[in-house]
Structures are given as C-alpha cells and as structure tokens.
Amino acid sequence: MAPLVILDEETKATLESYGPTSPAAQGALAAVCGSIATLGFLWTYRRYWKRIPNAEAVPASLIARRGWVKGIVTSVGDGDNFRLYHTPGFFWRWPIKLRQVPQTAKGENHPRDLYQLQGQTIHIRMAGVDAPEAAHFGKPGQPYAREALDWLRSKAHGKRVWCQLVRRDQYQRIVGVPYLAPKILPSLLFKGKNISLMMVTAGWGITYAQAGGEYGSEGKGKYLELERQARAARRGMWAGGKKLESPAEYKKRVAGDNPAPAPAARSAAAPARGFFFRLFSSRKS
C-alpha cells in the first residue's frame, strides 16, 4: 500500500487552482478550442470558399489530385476553350444570393467580353476534343470554325459548369473535362452532360488524338465512337460527307506556312502526318 501523503492547506489550494473547473484551466481550454476553430475555418475557406481568380492562381495540388471547380462561363473565345469565373462555396444563387459574377459592359459575345474579365477568370481548354481552328495572327481559319464557336457559345456561355482539372498546357491554360451543372439534381452528387462529348456528338469537333490526351472517366473509346456516329449521320461539319483536314493537321501546316496539299500530293511518297495535336487532355474537376 502506498504511503498516505498529507498535504498542507497551502498546497491543497495551489493544486485546486489548476483543477478542471478552475478559471485558469477553462481559459486555457477556451484558447485551444478557439485556435482549433480558427484553423478549421481557414482550412475550409482555402479549400472550398476561396475564389481562384485566374489560371495562374490554380494550385498545383488541385491539378495533381484532379480536383473540381465550378463556375460561370463568361466568354467563349474559340471552339474548344472558354473562360470560367470560379464560384466556390454558397450564396451565388437565389434565394440567398450574396455574391455575384461581374457583368461585362457590352453584353453577351461582344469581342470585349474576352478581355474584360480576363484577369478574373480561369482559361479552360476542353479536354478530349479538338474543334476547327479560327483565324489567328493573319492565318486563315478552318472551315466550320465559326459554326463550332457558335455551337459552344449556345451551349456554355452564361451557364454553370463543373470542370475536373487535369493539367496545365503550354499556353498556361488549364485543361479540364467540362460538365454542365444538372438543372435539378444536386451537382455535388450527380454529373451533368459532358460538353466535350456533346460537341463531338453534334459533329462540331473531333476526338483529340495526340499522345498524352486525357478523356476523363468516359475514356477515349467513347469519344471515338461518338465521332464515328456523327460522321455516319453527317452531323455538323460532316454534312458534306467529305474527309476534312483535322485541326492538328491544319496547325502543323500553317506553322510552316505551307500551302494546302493538293489531293494528288497525298501519295505513298509523302511523309505520314498522323493525327495529333491534342492541345491538352481531360481532367474533370
């Protein structure tokens, strides 16, 4: 049996002052709880509530884990890319709308829309699809480039979109797999329609075919099958039933400023071109 220790009154008072109900202990507990709550709030804010202003600010860790972002498409500059105003957290929609997307001065699809929110939006390159190239830097555009651009604007401009981020491309855009947010079902639990697949199905884009391409959970086979069906049904740019120069072949040709090859020149002696430049991949948020 342990020896009985008898404490004097002063020692007892000192020990009791550090008991669980003492003011000092309660103050220390409150400080610890407050610190934990503050750190938890800051972590939650940074991960779920902090707005990502542009592509340069997208964390590498978010891309590495193929995270998701949601937002509003504020402009469509080409047939396979757009700008997304990131809208994290809540209170962006009625009935409790405390935050809002800035409005451009000139309205939908005005050329200035491409620049007014440029520093406030994430430049997204759609994964898995290649659309006809528009005219750039004095180079003529491809046939159906305008139609592909108009189609994407009609489907995505001003819409709420979820993107799974895949990687950053050589132009510092973020390659992502874009999905229209479901109209009724909660988007946190259900995916909407894949915009890249919608474009291929409509015949205004082809499967991105260069090495290193990404296609999200649907896989490359799904894109190729939908492209085959669009060709067979002569939808979109396949309406004429002709073989078209792919965006990759076009970029390869105009990069060297070479004239378009004549049909007879495509002989066995000509170097194989291959199907290529998938500017990016898919990474769905």
Total beta strand runs: 9
Q: What is the residue-averaged pLDDT?
A: 81
The main β sheet shows up as:
5 strands, mixed, barrel
Distance between the termini: 66 Å
Give helix % range.
25-40%
Q: What is the N-to-C order of secondary-structure elements (H for helix, E for strand)?
A: HHHEEEEHEEHEEHEHH
- Poorly predicted runs of 5 or more residues: 260-285
**Tally the helices: what do you get?**
8
Oligomer: single chain
In brief, what are we looking at here?
Helix content is 31%, strand content 16%.
Structure description:
With 285 residues, this protein is an alpha+beta fold. 31% of the residues lie in helices and 16% in strands. The protein contains 8 helices and 9 strands. The chain has helices at 9-16, 23-49, 60-64, 113-116, 145-156, 195-202, 220-233, 247-255; strands at 68-78, 81-86, 92-93, 96-97, 122-126, 129-130, 160-168, 174-180, 206-207. A 5-stranded mixed barrel has the order 1-2-5-8-7. A two-stranded antiparallel ribbon has the order 3-4. It is elongated and about 100 Å long.
What keywords describe this structure?
two-stranded antiparallel sheet; 285 residues
List the helices and strands and how they pair.
Layout: H1 9-16, H2 23-49, H3 60-64, E1 68-78, E2 81-86, E3 92-93, E4 96-97, H4 113-116, E5 122-126, E6 129-130, H5 145-156, E7 160-168, E8 174-180, H6 195-202, E9 206-207, H7 220-233, H8 247-255
Parallel strand pairs: 5-8
Antiparallel strand pairs: 1-2, 1-7, 2-5, 3-4, 6-9, 7-8
Helix pairs in contact: 6-7
